Amino acid sequence: MSNVSVYNMEGNEVGTLELNDAVFGVEVNEHLVHMAVVRQLANKRQGTQKAKTRSEVSGGGRKPWRQKGTGHARQGSTRAPQWTGGGVVFAPVPRDYSFKMNKKERRIALKSALTTRVQENKLVVLDELKLDAIKTKDMQNVLNNLKVEKAMVVTDNENVIVSARNIPNVITASVGTMNVFDILKYNTVVLDKAAVAKVEEVYA
Question: Region labeled Disordered — which residues (predicted)?
Answer without folding.
Answer: 43-85
